[in-house]
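My main concern about presentation is that the manuscript never shows what a single data entry looks like. Each protein is reduced to its one-letter sequence and a matching series of backbone shape codes. For the editor and my fellow referees, an illustration may be useful. For illustration, here is how one protein appears when written out as sequence plus structure tokens:
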Amino acid sequence: MDVILIAGFWLNASSWDGVVPALEAAGHRVHALTLPGLASVDDDRTGVGLADHVAAVVKAIDDLDGSVVLVGHSGGGAIAHAAVDARPDRVTHVVYVDSVPLGDGSVINDELPVVDGEIPLPDWSVFGAEDLTDLDDELRERFRATSIPQPVGVATDKQVLRDPRRYDVPITVITCEYPAETVRELTANGHPYTAELAKVRDAKIVDLPTGHWPQFTKPAELGAAIVEALA
């Protein structure tokens, strides 16, 4: 199976390096994406918006033959959801890594601090303790050294969805910061965070206890969890 990997904020294709071996060992063809504005700190991110990132993923789908799987981490999950909305007949499964589908009209995160027209990786104090679980000093240093400022528009532009067939595509949510049972309870109680998730007809929620960046803290385990989701 062709598996397209979509990184979260401040990350590009290289962030999946520790996850790819497990997927390839299982026989999958892996396509880790670097989205517009995230190749280098020197990239021009002016005017790059959510639609540009979605279009890049849709192009990756169109460049492949047959069905594909999308894997989106954090904000990358919102991009994956928009891409499956654009190509519901081409995507057979979506894996959301510490993320859930983002509904129409919502934004990924419009509360992050903007500096000089872009969003650099903030100070660690911005994040909750649950985000930083297992992210030790060495991993934090590596993350910060390789982080790329996020285009503001990707974080603040509204999600645009049009095709209800997206709800027919099976998904797996790999929840890290909070137990899977918490996500199930939010969904059952009609919480806005899981409103779009609640509409998906075939959704499985599984635990991978760690912080918000399992590709750094538990890469082998994340790879195994993705393989299991696609088995």
